[in-house]
Amino acid sequence: MQQIEQSIDRYLAAMDSADRATPEVAEAKAERLKEKIETLKKQKIEAQLHESPDQQISLTDPDARSMATSGRGTGTVGYNVQTAVDDKHHLIIAHEVTNVGNDRGQLSNMANQAREEIEAESLTVVADRGYYKGLEILACEQAGITTYVPKPLTSGSKAEGRFGKQDFIYLIASDEYRCPAGQFLTRRHSSMEDGMLLHCYYFSGCQSCSMQKQCTTGKERRMKRWEHEAVVDAMQVRLEHDPAMMRVRRQTVEHPFGTLKYWMGSTHFLTKTLPRVSTEMSLHVLAYNLKRMMSIFGIAALLEAIRA
Question: Which of 32-41, 77-86, 217-226, 247-256 is predicted least confidently?
């Protein structure tokens, strides 16, 4: 990077010298120097990309990052705004601006912020499937926070017409899986993957099973189970018994986002860099909550509560 900067400075100085030459010579020399400078600038950007931890660089806002959008393979450069909204009054209890392009690592962080704000000992949190991550769900469980997060449907086997993991029944008492053919997959070994201890289960006689092609393309169907998967299973049972919770989520958290985006207009954030965008978002949240409280209490009652 230092060598590239020095080369650019040297070529810029050479362009200044070329300006003092005859017009014909100056024009030809300037054109060659411009090409060299453009090449060096590209090399500089490539070097910055290589040094960036997430292999991203924004030329207009150094903190902005690529964010996934609803269309497959599409995205936009910007920020990820997290909010925790109460389901009774639709007030924004907690919020945070990040430049991480997904929500998978935000569940316990936002849940704990919300609980601290309302000073509650226990809390029930509902989030969409973008927040599904075993370690985050476990962190909430250990903090006494009840979660409702649907599991993403990402089974490659199910998409290809074979049995998915949900077709295998885990038997707690014997620590085995029962497959659709009625055979039992026993625990064989364990391994660490992405900081999680996973146990591997399989049945040795899959090759003689008449349902093998519906189950696996390999010699035997293998199942992996996280050591804390019981926490995730318990959450899934809660969702099955109370599917209306996801409708409550849509009616709760989407309302403030829709209102704020309407106020902000198509340009959304007007500032750049994470600290400034965070401040801008805080002002929007303050304005939103004040208007909500005016609607709930009335202006006179709100002013009285503020004075108190």
Answer: 32-41
Task: Name which of 210, 144, 152 is nearest 180 in CA terms.
Answer: 210
111 plus 143 within the same structural domain: yes
At position 36, the amino acid (one-letter code) is K
Pairing verdict, β 123-126 and 145-148: parallel
Any domain includes 205: yes
Reported for 11-20, long-range contacts at CB under 8 A and 24+ positions apart, including other chains, are 11/36, 11/37, 11/40, 12/37
Instruction: Return the structure tokens found at 228.
Output: 């804390």
* Residue 197: both structure tokens together: 């201890």
Q: What is the pTM of this model?
A: 0.79
Note whether residue 35 is domain-resident.
Answer: yes
Assigned token pair, 92: 């924004």
pLDDT in tens, 65-88: 988 776 666 778 899 999 999 999
Residue 117 falls within a domain, yes or no?
A: yes
* 147 and 259 housed in the same domain: yes
Residues 204, 100 share a domain: no
